[in-house]
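Cross-check.
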Amino acid sequence: MKINNSLSFERIKKVLDLKTVLIVLAVVTVLSVMFYVANENLDSKELMIWFVTTDYDAGFSEGTIKEINEYGSDKGIDRILVLKRHPEDRYFDVVMSTSAFYSCDAFIMQGEMAHRYADMDMFMPLSIDTEDKESILYHGDVAIGIKLDDDYYFLINKKTDIDREIIYDIYEMLKKN
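Predicted model, tokenized:
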């Protein structure tokens, strides 16, 4: 008995129908794109700061943003983003507890807003030695934020992978604005 194991178009056509071939191609394409995007993002490093405010005029000068980006470049960070977020957006709570929790490095927000999310264990406890207790935001007896100006505090996300000293230096630059 002789076994025919030759590969021919007719045999392939019998085994694989068009639907199966298209599904396999789609899966391979999706996986290739996912690995490409993941690999591209491994090399780039960015620092994201969420500025939670209802004030459309609030912000930082172009000079300050340029200064913190230049500082970040010197420290190996490709880009520093300061994104404004409106707390009265109807999807804000969902985005804050998902996207911000996992992708944001620091927050600028009012104290009452920070207390609203502090129970989620989102903010890094700070070890700050200062006599000026009013410049520190406490949740219970844990320091979670540093005063940036009269109404806003700077808070660090617990999940950040950016060096804490770099984040503190950026805080100092933003405070000068």
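The beta strands are 46-52, 79-85, 106-110, 136-139, 142-147, 152-156. The helical segments are 9-15, 18-43, 62-74, 92-103, 111-118, 164-176. Passed to J.P. for a second look.
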